[in-house]
């Protein structure tokens, strides 16, 4: 299993599309390995395609746009949104132990590229 986590510092980014870095966790019988990568420029469909090319099958994030979630689904990547801005290593450990508590959070973008063009929908940025 490979899990992607968008980062702001060591914390889970509040919005996946604004994250300057991604942690990629590879989990297998040998344990958990983590790699920090810089994502390609944020444009519709680019990050889901990039993560799919890395073999990621799950993303843990704070907020995500509905269109992005659809792209991830098309690549067979499970989206777990509503993750709090906590240390990524702790979040992944809680997820793997089945103890991660989330409330799915999705932005309803107003058609503007690169950000939320609205004042509601639960978007906190």
From TrEMBL:
SUPFAM superfamilies named in the record: Nitrogenase accessory factor-like (SSF53146)
A Pfam family annotated for this UniProt entry: Nitro_FeMo-Co
Superkingdom to which the source organism belongs: Bacteria
Record domain Dinitrogenase iron-molybdenum cofactor biosynthesis: where: 9-96
InterPro entries assigned: Di-Nase_FeMo-co_biosynth, DiNase_FeMo-co_biosyn_sf, MTH1175_dom
Gene3D superfamilies: Dinitrogenase iron-molybdenum cofactor biosynthesis domain
Cited PANTHER family: DINITROGENASE IRON-MOLYBDENUM COFACTOR PROTEIN-RELATED, IRON-MOLYBDENUM PROTEIN
Name of this chain's protein: Dinitrogenase iron-molybdenum cofactor
Lineage start: Bacteria, Pseudomonadati, Thermodesulfobacteriota, Thermodesulfobacteria, Thermodesulfobacteriales
